[in-house]
Design brief:
This protein is of the alpha/beta class. The protein has a 9-stranded mixed beta sheet with strand order 8-9-21-20-15-14-11-12-13, with helices on both faces. Strands 3, 4, 5 and 6 form a 4-stranded antiparallel beta sheet that branches. A 4-stranded parallel beta sheet has the order 17-18-16-19, with helices on both faces. α5 links the parallel β14 and β15. The relative contact order is 0.13. It binds adenosine-5'-triphosphate (ATP), 6-O-phosphono-beta-D-fructofuranose and magnesium ion (MG). The site of 6-O-phosphono-beta-D-fructofuranose (F6P) has 12 residues, from loops. The site of magnesium ion (MG) has 6 residues, from α5. One of its GO terms (cellular component) is cytoplasm.
Length: 544
Amino acid sequence: MMAGVGVMPIRVDGNATKSLESAFLSPKIPVSSSSSKLLLGCYKGRLPDVSLVQKRSSDFGNNRLTVRNSISVDKRGVSSKISDEDYAENFRPPHITDVFDIPARPSTFCAKTSLPLPEGRQVNRWSTNLGKMFVHEDDRVLLKTIKYASPTSAGAECMDGECRFQHQWVARAGPRSKIFFDPAEVNAAIVTCGGLCPGLNDVIRQIVLTLDCYGVENIRGISNGYRGFFEENLHDIPLSRKIVQNIHLEGGSLLGVSRGGSKTSDIVDSIERKGINMLFVLGGNGTHAGALAIHNECHKRGRKVVVVGVPKTIDNDILLMDRTFGFDTAVEEAQKAINAAYIEATSAYNGVGIVKLMGRQSGFIAMHASLASGQVDVCLIPEVKFTVDGPEGMLQHVQYLLETKGRAIICVAEGAGQDLMANLSNSTDASGNPVLGDIGVHLTKEVKNHFKNIGVAADVKYIDPTYMIRACRANASDRILCAVLGQNAVHAGFAGFTGVTVGIANNHYVLLPIPEVIAYARNVDPNSRMWHRCLTSTGQPDFV
Ligand SMILES: Nc1ncnc2c1ncn2[C@@H]1O[C@H](COP(=O)(O)OP(=O)(O)OP(=O)(O)O)[C@@H](O)[C@H]1O
Ligand SMILES: O=P(O)(O)OC[C@H]1O[C@](O)(CO)[C@@H](O)[C@@H]1O
Ligand SMILES: [Mg+2]
C-alpha cells in the first residue's frame, strides 16, 4: 500500500505523517519514537515486524500497569502513543476487531441535523471542522483521583499497605474519527430491561437522534426487555427522529420493560433472524450480565454484532461510576415524601413519620435523600445493621426524640433490616432478585406497638413513595446525563467497541468493559465520608 494515495494525511507524532488509508488497512505495527522517524516523508509498505518498544514498568509490585514509549498503529488503524497495556488491568474495552477483520472507515458523524432544508437540500453531513470534533483514540480518563496517605484515611481504598497511588486509566467515551460500520448497513436495536427508572426515554431518544446523525435509518425498539426478542405476542417498534422527538416528556419507557426471560441462545437466534448488528441495552446489573452473554454468544457464532450497555439503576448500585441516571431525580423526588412525613409529624402530637425509599441492597437513595432534606432523624440502610428493641435499639432513640423534639422522622431503604423480619419468603422475582420483606410496614408496626405498650400516645404515619419516584420524568441534571450517555453509547458502537458500557467517572465520560462494572453491586461504604456526613446531619447513634 502506497502512502498518501489521494487521502488525507494524519499526524502520527510531532515529526511524522502517515496516510489515513494505510493507517486503516495496515496490521499492527509497533514502532518506537526513534523508529517513527521512518515514517517521515513517504511510508512504503510494512515496517519490519519487530517491536522496538522501550517498556518501562511502573513500580507497583503486582500491578501490571506499564508505560510504553512507543507509537504503534494497531489493526484497527489506530495510531497509539499509549499502547493498550497502559490501561489499568482489565479496563481495555473489547473491540470488534479483536475477533473480526473489519476495516475502519472515516466517520460519518456530524453534529448537525440531517433533516431536509425547506428547499429540499440536505445539510452537509461532513463537518468542515473535523479537527476538534472527535476524541483521540489514546484519550484516557483517570478512574481514581484521590491519593490516600494512609489506609485509615476515610474511605481509603488501598491496594497495598502503603496506599501507593495507582494510575487507573480507562477509555474516554465520545465520537472517533474512524468507524467500523457503514451506516447504510447498520440495523440497530434498543432494549430496556429491569425496573423503570427516570430518564429511560431520554436515553432512547438520544440513541435514536445520534444514530440518525451518523446516517442510520434502520432502528427498532425491542418490546418489554429481553422477552421482546422471542415472545411471539411482542412486536418491535420502529424508531426514528420523528417518533422519539417528544418521548422524554414522559416517564417510563416507550419500549416497555420486563424482568426474567433471559435466554441467551433464544435472544441471539432472534438477533440473527432480525439481522441486528448494533444492540443498545439499557438496564442494571442483571441486564448487563445478559448483555455480556449476548456479546459472547454473537462472537461465538461469528456474528459481527456490537453490544453496548447504558447503565440504568435508580439504586445507583453500579461500580466505578459517579452516579447512574435517574438517581438524582429519585433523591429529588424523595424530598417530597420526606417533607410530607416531616409536616405530618411536626403538626401531630408526638408525630412519627416513616418513609421507605428504594434500594434493594444499596442505601444510596436513602442516604442522599436524608442528607439533602435535613429533616431526617434516623436513616437506615442495608449496609448498616441495626436493632429495633433494647437499650441501644432504634425505638429507644425514637422515644428520646419524641421526648426532646416532639417528633421523629425515619427514612429507611427497602433493603435495610431484612434480618429483623420473621417469615420472609426467600422467594425471588422472575430475574432471580430476592423478594424483600416490607421493612417500612414492619417498622411502622414496631413503633406503634412500642408506644402502645409504654402507654404513650404517638401518631405514626407511613409513606411509601417508591413507585411514584421511579415512574416520574427525569430532572434536568439527569436528562443531561442521559443525553451524554445515550450519545456516547452510539459513538462506542460505531467505533467498534462491544461488551462495554458507558458511564461518568470523575465528571468525565468513559467506556468500561461490562465485567468490571457488574462484578458485584456497589454499596454505601459505612466508613465513607458521605455516610459520616449523613450521620452528622441526622444525629443518630449506632443502633447496635
Ligand atoms: N446473570 C444474568 N445473565 C443473563 N441475564 C440476566 C442475568 N441476571 C439477570 N438477567 C436478565 O436481565 C434482565 C434484567 O435483570 P433484572 O430484572 O435483575 O434487572 P436489572 O438489570 O438488574 O435492573 P434493576 O436495577 O431494575 O434490578 C432480565 O430479563 C433478567 O432475566
Ligand atoms: O417491583 P419491581 O419492578 O421488581 O422493582 C423493585 C426494584 O426495582 C429497583 O428500583 C431497581 O430497579 C429496586 O430498588 C427495587 O427493589
Ligand atoms: Mg437486578
